[in-house]
Amino acid sequence: MSYAEPSRKRRWLAGLAALVVAALAAVELFFPASPVGEIVAIIDANYVRSVLRLTVPIAFAALGGIFAEKSGVINIGLEGLLIISAFTSIAVAGVISGGTPSQFQLWIGFWVAVLASVLFALLFAVICIEFKADQIIAGLAVWLIALGLAPFASKVIWGQVNSPPVATLNNFDLLVVEANPPVVMMLISVPAAWYALNRTSFGRWIEASGENPKALDTVGVDVRKVRYAGVLLSGFFSGLGGAGLALGRVGQFIGGGATMVNGRGWIGITAYLFGNYNPLGAFGASFLFASLDALQIRLQQLGYNIPSELIGIIPYVTVVVVLAFVGHTRIPAAAGDHYESGEE
Amino acid sequence: MSTAVHLEGITKRFPGVVANDEVDLEVEEGSVHALLGENGAGKTTLMNVLYGLYQPEGGTVHLHGEPREFDTPRDAIDAGIGMIHQHFMLVDTLTTAENIVLGHEPRKWFGLAMDREQAERDVRDLSERYGFDVDPTARVEDVSVGVQQRVEILKALYGGADVLILDEPTAVLTPQEVEDLFEVFEELAAEDKTIIFITHKLGEAMEAADDITVLRDGKNVGTVDADGTSREELAELMVGREVLLEADKDPVEMGDVGLEVSNLRVTDNRGVEQVSGVNISAREGEVFGIAGVDGNGQSELVEAITGLTTPDEGSVAFEGRDVTDLSRRERIDAGLAYVPEDRQERGLVMEFDLVENGLLGSQHTSEFADGGRIDWGHTRNHAEDIIEEYDVRPPNADAEAESLSGGNQQKFVVGREFARDPEVVVASHPTRGVDVGSIEFIHERILDLRRAGKTILLVSSKLDEVQQLSDRLGVMHEGEIVDVVDPERVTEEELGLLMAGEIPEDAPSIADAPGGER
Q1: Is the overall model pTM greater than 0.90, yes or no?
Q2: ipTM of this predicted complex?
Q3: Which chain A residues are within 8 Å of B104, Cβ to Cβ?
Q4: Closest Cα in chain B, distance from residue A222 (Å)
């Protein structure tokens, strides 16, 4: 009974959002010269394309976070994994080519970066699963280490925290559209992740591992292995996200401040909470947050000066509102708990 | 028939205790076998040895005549043993079918996807074969505890089990669900499955089992045929001495009205009315029993009387004094003792030792704390007195409450409350989870209070308990007292109807006057 209502609320919210979009479209159609009309006019195919590119790191971080947390290991180090892979992709592509990498060398950088992120996640998994460290503290450590290590390595290689511009992956023709490779990977990964979680045995195991690991253990499935798989997948997806950000959109590594990742891993966490651990919902939320970001950039180009910091807090405010008022983001019952087989 | 399980000379030690001392157990194939014993008699330990959770220091496990060694539950499961624990091993967010096939999911598309249709078909077939009513598409969190238990049984059967071990399977069930479970046992035995269930309830062992093995202090003290034994024999085997199953209730001179509840209405925190106009008038020297299926307003009634919740309407009076607006502490001062239904939640602070727990509720009285400083010496003596009188084990006042078994926790709580020298005693399920010997003891203490002229309100879901101890018995249904009956003349069938909210024609009703006159 308590579960039907929030989902109805969610549907209601989705309906409201659709109505707002329709109203805005109507304004644009009939009053193209009004400020609202002008703003809506920016929303075209190009805008959507740029939003999708901005969605890549957020959505991949969210997918990774879902696998880790549903298996029972809360990975708040996603931001760190994005930083590691963003840096590694540029560094590897830059170093093996001496500065102007070919597409092939960019792809080598891309996959080495994914590997680096997976290895980092493995380290996190060993600390959390074997040594039973507090997952939150270990996750923060992953972020803080990445935040220090990447700019430092950047200085060692290039003498400064930012790399010189390297290159981006070429778009390719997919049927009628010009497709950005990381965006295509994302659009394949989201339904694939949904399918894996909801329609395969592995998905049931992930769910059981995060809800009642003992139930899984007693039917003979190794909870540790399932949790390792969940965390390593979070490394894999974050790797795609970080490398996709660096090589798919920016083309260089920026290590100053919060680095070029700039909180997108954290927004990924809010996105999957917003999406209630459903990859499709998490993707929708990632897309929404990215579109707000892109809108702010466009508005600045149009001369409307909305502080980017204000836009930047929108995901966090939204997630607090969603968690507090819409309710029912169901956190896996055993998330954050260590599991020892044979415990009584 | 052949022997399905044969345990030979099983010895299992834990630091400081011998949990199983050369225990032999033989279970026939296709039979229902009860493992009966008091709390801490070693029943669960023995079954955990069979299930591979514990490695015994001595002895052999034979399964279908073959000596076997199970290093992990996995080995036992592979050998066809399934165990259903008290706490279910289910994933709430998955469907019943997904839980049942967990770990053995049928696959399709070269193993890539789980075949849900196949899983649901399998579960439906299995469920129908044993006459279970389980919807394979329902989520576990949406089905009742009784159905969850069946899902656990189906899970074991799906995994290929032919020997099923159930640890206290009735503890979480309603009386109706218990009946259903015992029917399930019969169905399973008819299909040549072997069932071993752990219980400390005599009646259940006699009703559901073919054979009963009694454990006491880690030893097998006898295996008996369920049809050829009596409750008295079993109780004596369990406790090691003769047990009075029928409490001796001598007539007592009743005094003035000690507890008066008038037109009480209580709404719970979800806004649902749980107590709808209850009137009780219990006299000094009287035990007023409340029977009913759990969840029909008994808890809320007790909370309103003890001051844990505020009624919407009506009043409560102790010894003629209106206490409706008094706080918990003021009610204790007015002579209230309260044995709460959940000892771990409300009766004890689990992290405190028994000295501190013995002080709870009296910490402000001059006996224990003069001028705000607690007299620990006196407090310790008080706790040790309770431990001695109520035979709390281990007899160590410095032990933390959580280190005690449930039955011993309960004895300590009962001892503390009865030691208050109360005028009004509210006892909510005072023997829940307590073994036979201790039940007898607690019943005697309640009757002592009655003899001493105290007013006692006894709430229990155990019918034999309320029937034996009460002078008058009110039956609650949906927040109302349906009828007040004479516990000695009412039959179980009549009580069953009353608990369902119907008034049988010739129920021995008593008007609200003590003494049995209409």
Answers
A1: no
A2: 0.80
A3: 219
A4: 10
